[in-house]
Each structure stands twice: as C-alpha cells, then as structure tokens.
C-alpha cells in the first residue's frame, strides 16, 4: 500500500463515526415524525362543533348538557388517532366491562323469524320520578353481550333507565335462524317489534331511542317511517352512522384513511356470520338465497359485494342501488319530529367527511335536531383518560345519558309549569324556529 493511500484512510477514518451518528439521528427523527403523524399528536383538543337552531329547547340543552360544549380530551398518547380509537373499540370494546343482569325475550315475526332482545331493569329511580325505557339498537352484527353495549347499559341502569337491547337477527352465537333471513342495513321490523312489546308491557313508560352505527340508521328510519312510531318517544340519539349507504359505497372503496382495509375486515366478519347460518338459509323452502349465492360469498372482499350477493335478496330487492336507497335513513330522517341528537367524529375512518353534510344540513333546517361533531373519537371509540389507560366510561356513554336526562327534565318542567301533557310539550319544543347556529370548539 502506498503512503498516499495510507494517508487517505487515516484522514477518512475519523469521519465514519460521525457519519453513522448522523444516520442514527436521522433514523430516530424519521421514526418520531412517523409516530407524531400516525398518533396525530400535534392535533389540538376542542369542544364538539355544534350545529343547531336557536330555540328554547336547544338553549336549555346547551346550558344543562355541558358535555356538548366542553372540550373533549382523549387519552394523551393515542387518543387523537381515529384508527387507534376504532381498533381499540373493535378489539376491546371497553375496559373493566360490567355484566348487567337481564332477561332475554323472544318475539315471533310475521315471516317466521324470531326476534330477540334483552331487558334490563333500572337500578334506581329516575331523577324525574318517571318510568323511562331506553330502546337500543347496536351496530353491525352486534348484540347485548358486546362490551360497549354492556358498559352503556350498566351506566344507564344506574341513572334510572330501564334498557331494552335488540339482538340483531343472526348475530347471537349459538342461536339458529327460524326463517331464511338475517338482519339488514335498514330493516326496522325487529326493532319495531321490540318497541311494541315495551309499550304493551309497560303502559306508563316513556321511550328514549338510541342507535349505534348501523343501529343509528335503523332507529332514525324507524321513527321517520310513521308518525305513530314517535308515540311516547322523548328523544332519539344516533351515534357514528353514515346516513346514506348509496353515497357511502364509493367512499368505502377508497384507500383514504384505510377505509378499503376496514371494508375488507368488516366484510370478512360478515362472511363468517352469514356462513355460520348456511344450513338455515338454504334449508327452508321460502329462502331467496341459493347455494350458488353462498358459494360466491367466499370470493367477496367488500361489504358491497356481500350486500349485492346475499343481503339485498333477503327482502327481494332487485339491485344493490335499490337496496341502499330503500334502507338508508336519509330519506326518512327529515320526518322525525322528536328531539334528535346526531353524533359523529371527524376522525372516524369508516365515515367519509362528505357524508357529514347530511346531518349538518338537517340541523340547520330542523329545530328539533342537534348535530355534534367531535375532533377525535374514531368509530364508537370516544375513550377518555389521562395519558395511556382509558377510563371504563367513555365520553359517548356519558353524553348520551346527560342529553337524555336534560330532555327528561325539560319535558317534566314544561309540563309542570304549563299543565300540559307530554305530546303538547313535544309539539312546543319543535315549533319555535330561528336561524341556524354552528358552535366550533
């Protein structure tokens, strides 16, 4: 080796450690940047954006329901990520989940199906002294045994509410179908049967209607289908629904916010649920589903394919478009006249932001509607907590009960002051209309 080469190596050698240190720092900086971006740590917390009409009822609600106007603070390290909120809800449901004690009821339907719901009695008297029942419709493929439902029911019971929770047709494990159909995106038959049972079994009870995700679509469609369905209903709360399946189908195929991945995972869940009832669906003479339909199901990679190949055929829809048009609440929700709280999260990875124009426009035009949009919360997450570990009760659990309590006391106070019945108070609360208002936290 020449003296010149030896000299070059000695002069270059001291630079190597510094070069490697620089690469390490760059790698660490890159990882930290990715973590900050993925966890959305730079996003600020805020109060929900509230869209409403300025009426006596809305002013009363915003005064006595402070959770709607107060800053929602998710867990510091991961709570600002809509994906983590959604995944934790999907995998864990809730933490320290209680086990409320209820009674399962079976309701024969006109087509041979057997609807079921679980009934949970209140654990104390309601603060108004009235008998009030929450009629609850869970999300897609869910039932009363899901952790988020159990947590919400336990909280509601402790606030003086009886709870009735629909078990979606075909969703309960180890319960066979008695007719060749399952629950669908907007079929209200089973929910209507549960509500009818509650009204007959408890003639003095008033109703609070609650729907989560797909359940939100069902309950809003149910109330809008007939004014008779609003009889004895105090209010309705819908959480994290998409309002229009027809508009949502295109967004659910996009890779933005990983919706295509969520679509695939939900489709896989639905496939397993449908195929677990294969013998029941095929073994009845009145079935609209054939062996070829279920065989094609194996290749489905999206909810839209499953809806087209199987779900729409339960009710004889001729096309997927007709199925989505007829089963979406967007064509019925404007007919709802009882106080209606529509709650969504801006970072919900399942609900495209374009769909949020539907509830916002409705709240701007209808005096009975309040639309609350949080910055964070994901899909049915809304966890609260200090840094890492979430609390057993979520912001969603608390705001539903707080809103309901406020409505109950509004009705009670108005009736006491004016000597009117409940229906008169219901009419008065929605008759005074002013300009639309949007509050941003």
TrEMBL record:
<dbReference type="GO" id="GO:0043401">
    <property type="term" value="P:steroid hormone receptor signaling pathway"/>
</dbReference>
<dbReference type="GO" id="GO:0048240">
    <property type="term" value="P:sperm capacitation"/>
</dbReference>
<keyword id="KW-1003">Cell membrane</keyword>
<dbReference type="GO" id="GO:0036126">
    <property type="term" value="C:sperm flagellum"/>
</dbReference>
<keyword id="KW-0812">Transmembrane</keyword>
<comment type="similarity">
    <text>Belongs to the AB hydrolase superfamily. AB hydrolase 4 family.</text>
</comment>
<dbReference type="GO" id="GO:0051792">
    <property type="term" value="P:medium-chain fatty acid biosynthetic process"/>
</dbReference>
<feature type="domain" description="AB hydrolase-1">
    <location>
        <begin position="133"/>
        <end position="386"/>
    </location>
</feature>
<dbReference type="InterPro" id="IPR000952">
    <property type="entry name" value="AB_hydrolase_4_CS"/>
</dbReference>
<dbReference type="GO" id="GO:0097524">
    <property type="term" value="C:sperm plasma membrane"/>
</dbReference>
<dbReference type="GO" id="GO:0046464">
    <property type="term" value="P:acylglycerol catabolic process"/>
</dbReference>
<keyword id="KW-0735">Signal-anchor</keyword>
<feature type="active site" description="Charge relay system">
    <location>
        <position position="379"/>
    </location>
</feature>
<dbReference type="InterPro" id="IPR012020">
    <property type="entry name" value="ABHD4"/>
</dbReference>
<dbReference type="GO" id="GO:0051793">
    <property type="term" value="P:medium-chain fatty acid catabolic process"/>
</dbReference>
<keyword id="KW-0325">Glycoprotein</keyword>
<keyword id="KW-0378">Hydrolase</keyword>
<keyword id="KW-0443">Lipid metabolism</keyword>
<comment type="function">
    <text>Progesterone-dependent acylglycerol lipase that catalyzes hydrolysis of endocannabinoid arachidonoylglycerol (AG) from cell membrane. Acts as a progesterone receptor: progesterone-binding activates the acylglycerol lipase activity, mediating degradation of 1-arachidonoylglycerol (1AG) and 2-arachidonoylglycerol (2AG) to glycerol and arachidonic acid (AA). Also displays an ester hydrolase activity against acetyl ester, butanoate ester and hexadecanoate ester.</text>
</comment>
<keyword id="KW-0719">Serine esterase</keyword>
<dbReference type="Pfam" id="PF00561">
    <property type="entry name" value="Abhydrolase_1"/>
</dbReference>
<dbReference type="GO" id="GO:0047372">
    <property type="term" value="F:monoacylglycerol lipase activity"/>
</dbReference>
<keyword id="KW-0442">Lipid degradation</keyword>
<dbReference type="InterPro" id="IPR050960">
    <property type="entry name" value="AB_hydrolase_4_sf"/>
</dbReference>
<keyword id="KW-1133">Transmembrane helix</keyword>
<dbReference type="InterPro" id="IPR000073">
    <property type="entry name" value="AB_hydrolase_1"/>
</dbReference>
<keyword id="KW-0472">Membrane</keyword>
<dbReference type="InterPro" id="IPR029058">
    <property type="entry name" value="AB_hydrolase_fold"/>
</dbReference>
<dbReference type="GO" id="GO:0008126">
    <property type="term" value="F:acetylesterase activity"/>
</dbReference>
<protein>
    <recommendedName>
        <fullName>Monoacylglycerol lipase ABHD2</fullName>
        <ecNumber>3.1.1.23</ecNumber>
        <ecNumber>3.1.1.6</ecNumber>
        <ecNumber>3.1.1.79</ecNumber>
    </recommendedName>
</protein>
<feature type="active site" description="Charge relay system">
    <location>
        <position position="348"/>
    </location>
</feature>
<feature type="active site" description="Charge relay system">
    <location>
        <position position="213"/>
    </location>
</feature>
């Amino acid at each position: 080796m020449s003296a010149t080469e030896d000299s070059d190596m000695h002069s270059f050698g001291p630079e190597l450690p510094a070069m490697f240190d620089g690469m390490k720092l760059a790698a660490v900086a890159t990882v930290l940047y990715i973590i900050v971006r993925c966890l959305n740590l730079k996003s600020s917390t805020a109060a929900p954006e509230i869209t409403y009409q300025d009426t006596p009822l809305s002013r009363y609600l915003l005064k006595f329901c402070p959770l709607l106007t107060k800053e929602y603070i998710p867990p510091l390290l991961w709570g600002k990520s809509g994906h983590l909120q959604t995944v934790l809800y999907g995998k864990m449901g809730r933490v320290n989940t209680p086990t409320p004690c209820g009674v399962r009821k079976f309701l024969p339907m006109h087509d041979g199906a057997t609807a079921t719901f679980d009934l949970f009695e209140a654990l104390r008297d309601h603060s108004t002294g009235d008998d009030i029942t929450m009629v609850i419709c869970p999300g897609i493929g869910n039932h009363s045994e899901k952790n988020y439902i159990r947590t919400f029911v336990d909280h509601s019971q402790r606030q003086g509410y009886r709870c009735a929770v629909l078990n979606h047709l075909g969703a309960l494990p180890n319960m066979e179908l008695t007719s060749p159909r399952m629950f669908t995106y907007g079929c209200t038959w089973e929910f209507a049967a549960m509500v009818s049972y509650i009204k007959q079994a408890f003639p003095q009870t008033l109703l609070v209607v609650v729907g989560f995700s797909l359940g939100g679509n069902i309950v809003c469609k149910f109330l809008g289908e007939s004014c008779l369905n609003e009889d004895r209903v105090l209010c309705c709360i819908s959480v994290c629904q998409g309002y229009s399946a027809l508009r949502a189908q295109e967004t659910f195929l996009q890779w933005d916010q990983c919706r295509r991945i969520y679509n695939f995972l939900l489709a896989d869940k639905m496939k397993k649920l449908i195929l677990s009832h294969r013998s029941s669906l095929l073994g009845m003479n009145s079935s609209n589903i054939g062996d070829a339909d279920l065989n094609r199901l194996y290749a489905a990679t999206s909810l839209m394919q499953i809806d087209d190949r199987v779900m729409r055929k339960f009710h004889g829809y001729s096309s997927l478009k007709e199925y989505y048009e007829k089963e979406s609440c967007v064509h019925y929700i404007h007919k709802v006249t009882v106080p209606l709280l529509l709650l969504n999260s801006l970072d919900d990875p399942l609900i495209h932001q374009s769909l949020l124009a539907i509830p916002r426009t409705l709240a701007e035009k209808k005096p009975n509607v309040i639309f609350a949009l949080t910055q964070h919360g994901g899909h049915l997450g809304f966890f609260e907590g200090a840094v890492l570990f979430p609390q057993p009760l979520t912001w969603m659990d608390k705001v539903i009960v707080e809103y309901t309590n406020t409505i109950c006391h509004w009705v009670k106070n108005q009736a006491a002051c004016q000597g009117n019945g409940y229906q008169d108070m219901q009419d008065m609360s929605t008759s005074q209309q002013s300009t639309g208002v949007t509050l941003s936290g």
